Predict the 3D structure of the following.
Amino acid sequence: MGLRNREGVLTSDWLKRKMSLKEKGWGTCRLAETRGQDMRSEQEMMQLILEVAQRDERIRAVYMNGSRTNKNVKKDIFQDYDIGYVVTENKPFIEDASWIDVFGERLYMQCPDILDTWMGEERNFEEGFGWLIQFKDGNRLDLHVVPVEEADITEDKLCVVLLDKDGILPQIPEATDEDYRVKRPTEKEFWAACNEFWWCLNNVAKGLWREEVPYVQDMLNHVIRNQLIKLLNWKIGFETDFQVSTGKSAKEMYRWLPADIWERFLRTYSGGKVAEIWDAVFVMCDLFEETAHEVAGKYGFLYQQEEATNSYAYLKHVRELPKEATAVY
């Protein structure tokens, strides 16, 4: 296969032949001694990002999004720089990745678009391409190039224009996290969350009886806990008039939950021992039940109490079920 496939798209096979992944920095760079190197400040990083764009005629505009443009996010040393370079053409930047060396010495990096093609997914590198870079000094840069004709900054309300040489980007309002804020639920959404929670505990019960810990943890952490988080978010949303975001994975719920509720939520996470998981599951059930009643009351929703009561009773029954049992009841 040559440079392009039948649709005219740059291909990962071509990239592999064009350059050594290791030599050109697609994968892990040689680890260097990290001690003693000062971490560049936000001012220094932003100055570098803009200077690179200003010197390179192929780069016509620069925008930033993510946590650094969100005034409601507390700044810390681990915030990355989410930067988009709007360019005349993607291909030259991808053909020779050495241009990113100017940003500093790398510990390691990832190119998600290439990884996607390795996993069998189709990606058009000419529409967008990115490098996620962890630098030796502790900074991280998530850098993307997108051609002028593909640049769209209107969908992300946390986007901020940093440079526009030709006035090609539209005027956009001040950055806001409103798209990420807790949304008011409908009664059917509430019913769905409650039913998903109480029904899927059936899987947890049999999984714990069988001592299938990986299956149980997967069910708890990827299905059931999400329903509890929804209810806690709806509680927070009601109490804040839906003016806040609790962050990715609801990591900032603690800012709006009473300390005792937050502590109980943390206790829903367990280790790998079956007895510990059972205890955490019951903490989760009690917290969900209380929150469901509170949310139903605040919004005027009907709570399916019989469903909850029967599910919880089944869960308790299975915990006490002997290993030699030949029937559930």
